């Protein structure tokens, strides 16, 4: 008898440590990488002691009604360890804690029921008799716990490498299904103890396996859909980037054609002025020069930095804004090193396009864009402001596109935020003094500066 009690105690200790180690292996500990140093062993032994105490209490008639709810206490211990000692988000901790309980409950409910159906004995006999079947069942359950935990950890980490980032609602869905499944498995196992027909145990075991299969399908579908949405979003952003590159190419061609026309106009203009001056028609020459200056519409140089791509984007777009009747105020540092050229071009292109679009929607005659680029040793501070007639954030707090073809628009603000976050920065939208403002802070890449 004492040998079986020691064996049951060893099983409880193993399961307690396994259920604590499982979230540790997936989430990682805060500071300490060692399972023992982060108090994982102590939590495991505490959980094992709780399991042993609950098993003893459940044998007493008065506590028998609470047997199915003991899993909630075990879950609370695992979740407490995860919250105090482990990394990552609270929802991931909730999910992995529920998974740990589900694996142990599923194995403990499935294989004893299968053993009962195959041996012709009841589940109560399998779990209480000092028999070879009970010993084999106990060993098999522990081995399957190890196998399923290792397999699930491999699958979860593989998903992590695929950079699958679930939203809070998706994590809540998965964790809720897992938690409810744990309770259902406990109820099924409790019902199996009162069943005297071996064939029924087989159906109950299949029911537990079906519940596990439902959890696997839910996880696969949620993660799969999230990945498909991420790929779709990336494709849309890449498509938008190609449009911007094409626009920049078209702008460059237009500038080249404009320069050719100006050279032709200058040549003709100088010839006319020379003829007028030769004929002594000085006043006519002066009038012609004044008229030519009024018609002079070439691109202005608003900034001149060490980055030619940025110069082209800002000068071209702000020239277009000024030709549309928008007043432009622009200032920038001359050195724009330490940020990827393509990121700067995409960022500024989106910011100025949004500002021009905002100004053009204003009915007032006063339309203005203010662009400021400042920097210190560690960061860039980019601020773009445009006049507004009413609150934009009040009417459209999420800054969704108002264009009819929304499927091909509305990614500008997404690109702005992603570029800011890529460079360890942030993006802030606010309103002040009749202006809609977008402020971008981005960290300067010191390695890039060193390599310059």
SSE layout and pairing:
Elements: H1 2-27, H2 40-58, H3 70-85, H4 90-119, H5 123-128, H6 132-161, H7 168-193, H8 198-278, H9 282-294, H10 308-323, E1 327-332, H11 341-360, E2 368-375, E3 379-387, H12 392-395, H13 412-422, E4 426-432, E5 435-443, H14 446-451
Radius of gyration: 35 Å
Q: Helical proportion?
A: 55-70%
What order do the SSEs take from the amino end to the carboxyl end, as H and E?
HHHHHHHHHHEHEEHHEEH
Average of per-residue pLDDT values: 78
Distance between the termini: 77 Å
What is the number of helical segments per DSSP (H or I, 4+ residues)? 14
Shape: rod-shaped
| Uncertain residue segments | 404-410
- Count of β-strands: 5
Largest sheet: 5 strands, mixed
Helix/strand-derived category reads: alpha+beta
**Number of domain units:** 2
Strand order of the largest sheet: 1-2-3-5-4
- Strand content is 5-15%
């Amino acid at each position: 008898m004492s040998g079986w009690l020691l064996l049951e105690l060893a099983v409880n200790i193993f399961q307690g440590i396994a259920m604590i180690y499982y979230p540790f292996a997936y989430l990682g500990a805060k500071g300490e990488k060692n399972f023992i140093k982060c108090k994982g062993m102590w939590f495991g032994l505490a959980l094992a002691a709780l399991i042993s105490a609950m098993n003893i209490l459940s044998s007493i008639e008065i506590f028998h009604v609470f047997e199915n709810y003991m899993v909630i206490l075990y879950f609370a211990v695992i979740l407490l360890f995860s919250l105090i000692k482990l990394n990552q988000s609270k929802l991931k901790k909730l999910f992995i804690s529920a998974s740990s309980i589900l694996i142990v409950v599923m194995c403990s409910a499935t294989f004893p029921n299968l053993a009962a159906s195959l041996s012709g004995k009841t589940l109560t006999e399998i779990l209480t008799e000092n028999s070879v079947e009970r010993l084999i069942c106990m060993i098999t359950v522990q081995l399957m716990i190890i196998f399923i935990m290792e397999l699930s950890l491999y699958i979860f980490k593989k998903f992590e490498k695929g950079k699958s980032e679930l939203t809070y609602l998706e994590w809540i869905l998965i964790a809720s299904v897992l938690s409810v499944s744990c309770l259902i498995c406990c109820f099924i196992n409790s019902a199996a103890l009162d069943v005297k027909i071996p064939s029924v145990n087989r159906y109950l075991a299949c029911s537990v396996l079906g519940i596990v299969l439902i959890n696997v399908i839910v996880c696969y579908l949620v993660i799969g859909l999230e990945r498909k949405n991420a790929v779709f979003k990336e494709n849309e952003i890449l498509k938008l980037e190609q449009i911007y590159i094409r626009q920049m190419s078209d702008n460059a061609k237009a500038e080249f054609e404009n320069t050719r026309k100006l050279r032709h106009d200058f040549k003709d203009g100088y010839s006319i002025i020379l003829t007028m001056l030769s004929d002594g028609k000085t006043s006519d020459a002066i009038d012609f020069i004044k008229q030519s200056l009024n018609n002079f519409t070439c691109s202005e140089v608003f900034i001149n930095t060490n980055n030619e791509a940025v110069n082209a984007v800002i000068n071209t777009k702000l020239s277009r804004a000024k030709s549309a009747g928008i007043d432009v105020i622009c200032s920038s540092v001359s050195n724009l090193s330490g940020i990827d050229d393509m990121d700067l071009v995409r960022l500024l292109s989106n910011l100025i396009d949004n500002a021009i679009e905002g100004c053009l929607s204003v009915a007032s005659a006063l339309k203005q864009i203010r662009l400021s680029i400042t920097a210190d040793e560690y960061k860039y501070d980019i601020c773009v402001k445009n006049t507004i007639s009413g609150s934009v954030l009040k009417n459209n707090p999420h800054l969704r596109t108002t264009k009819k073809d929304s499927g091909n628009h509305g990614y500008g603000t997404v690109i702005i935020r992603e570029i800011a976050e890529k460079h360890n920065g942030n993006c802030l939208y606010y309103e002040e003094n009749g202006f809609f403002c977008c402020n971008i802070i981005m960290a300067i890449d010191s390695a890039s500066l060193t390599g310059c």
